[in-house]
Amino acid sequence: MPATRKTASAPTSASASTAKRGTHGKHPPCKLFVLDTNVLMHDPTSLFRFEEHDLYVPIMTLEELDNNKKGTSEVARNTRQASRMLDEIVSSAVDGIENGIALGTLSHGQASGRLHLQTEAIDVRLPAALPTARGDNQILAVVMHLVDKFPGREVILVSKDINMRIKARALGLAAQDYFNDKVLEDSDLLYSGTLELPADFWDTHGRGMESWKEEGHTYYRLSGPLTPDLLVNEFVFQDGDNPLQAWVKEKDGRSVVLETLVDYSHSKNNIWGITARNREQNCALNLLMNPEIDFVTLLGQAGTGKTLLTLAAGLTQTLESKRYSEVIMTRVTVPVGEDIGFLPGTEEEKMAPWMGALEDNLDVLNGTTGEGGDWGRAATRDLIRSRIKIKSLNFMRGRTFLNKFLIIDEAQNLTPKQMKTLITRAGPGTKVVCMGNIAQIDTPYLTEGSSGLTFVVDRFKGWAHSGHITLQRGERSRLADHAAEVL
Q1: Minimal CA–CA distance to 432: which of 417, 442, 447, 422?
Q2: Worst-scoring range by mean pLDDT, 44-48, 128-132, 250-254, 357-361?
Q3: Cβ(225)–Cβ(200) under 8 Å?
Q4: Region (Disordered): which ranges (predicted)?
Q5: Main-chain phi, psi angles of 43, to 5 degrees
Q6: Which of 284, 194, 176, 287 is nearest to 234 (CA)?
């Protein structure tokens, strides 16, 4: 949905605007959105995301942009980009800026409204409890002034700051969050990667079905009422007397081809000594071990086996089948508590404290080799460590990874822009695995709906060389499972 959420009264097209104006005579066709600084710092292209509606940028917003432009952080980069875009828009104004600047040409038709900058000193008496020196309160004063100035027009403050929106509503002003960056309104609607087939599936889809065996897999070509909604690489299952676990390998119009899964829950198909403990883990291993799948996303709460399965698959394909030259692991370094300050050493040594999950899982994987006693395990540990590289996200720009197994851990803390930067590092023969838990986001201004992990799950679904699975059941311990449920 472009722009902010268009709730009940928001016209979403020119025809809707005209209809509204016809009904309520005096209402203008478009709203006036006042932008808070954090919206521009979060998404510099937000200036072009409001379709036919007008924008208003207060002087205080420009002041705060100026105060936050220095540095190398993502926020500072976005601030500089927003300033450049504002400069480009203002420079294009041929008739002056008093009546607003048309956005149509610069936005390539995305926006047809006008951008207004504050060109006058505004003196509005705020309630005594609000100190006027604060930037937020000065922006609220501008909104109050615009409400008085345009009595027949809907004036709405757009801010990512929850407290700012609460203050605005307390003063009787309309306020909204910025929704354009949200992939989904409700994370419950996120693609899970699996679908349970109804009990009568074979009755309704069996007519004209073709079935054949090839390289140990059974294939079914069928069509029916469910098939148009299935996506390529989506997993389907059916429990009962004749259980089925398969995934969609081809889709052509209303017809699909299902391929049965490799059963990684059987010890003969173990991956580095690891077997799947439930259906979703089996689906995950089918994605991780398939050379045709270049991009895998794994979602799940703590203890569902995301890191263990991924490392087992990466080590097997690096050390045994030699499909990849090495495993590269990276993650966002967002602390849960207070930061412990600068860390000494090389890039790998600085990243080591963040890689506790890697160490824990390597201990499990090293224990599964079971041969050669302590000496054998020590040799295996050294071999494994020589093929796993730990990299920092800070130095990823401009790199290209060839024939690597790239693991991005804690991916829920990445913005969509950072996620794009990382995934586009993949060169020929590289597999990228993103994993995380969208219920544990530590990055400010990121939510379950706007996380980079949610973004890629939604955008990549249905692509022939990517797959996604949401792991449901915790397999860590009965204590961890119970804590996840009741705490």
Answers
A1: 422
A2: 357-361
A3: no
A4: 1-28
A5: -145, 95
A6: 194
Give the pLDDT band (50/70/90) at residue 261: very high
11: pLDDT strictly greater than 60: no
Tokens of 106: 């610069």
Phi, psi of 15 (to 5 degrees): -65, -40
Average pLDDT, integer, range 196-203: 89
The SS3 of residue 67 is helix
Whole-number pLDDT of residue 482: 84
Q: What is the dihedral of CA 400, 402, 403, 405, to 10 degrees?
A: -20
CA distance 189 to 448: 11
CB 306, CB 300: distance < 8 Å: yes
**pLDDT of the residue at 3:** 43
Tokens 């949401």, located at residue:
470
* Strand pairing report for 194-196 and 210-214: unpaired
Question: Contact at 8 Å (CB) between 435 and 297?
Answer: yes
Q: Could you give all domains of the chain from N- to C-terminal order, each with its CATH number? A: 14-176 (3.40.50.1010), 188-260 (no CATH), 267-486 (3.40.50.300)
Dmax (CA) for the chain in angstroms is: 86
Burial class from Cβ neighbours inside 10 Å (0-12, 13-18, 19+) for residue 315 reads buried
Strand 217-223 and strand 210-214: the pairing is antiparallel
Read off the pLDDT of residues 165-188 as tens digits, 9 standing for 90 and up.
Answer: 999 999 899 999 887 766 565 556
Stated as kind and residue range, the H or E segment containing 298 is strand 295-300
Q: What is the DSSP letter of 473?
A: S
Residue 34, CA distances (Å) to 158, 181, 212, 478 in order: 6, 18, 62, 51
Query: Is residue 403 a contact partner of residue 294, using CB atoms and an 8 Å limit?
Result: no
Q: Are 284 and 194 in contact (CB under 8 A)?
A: no
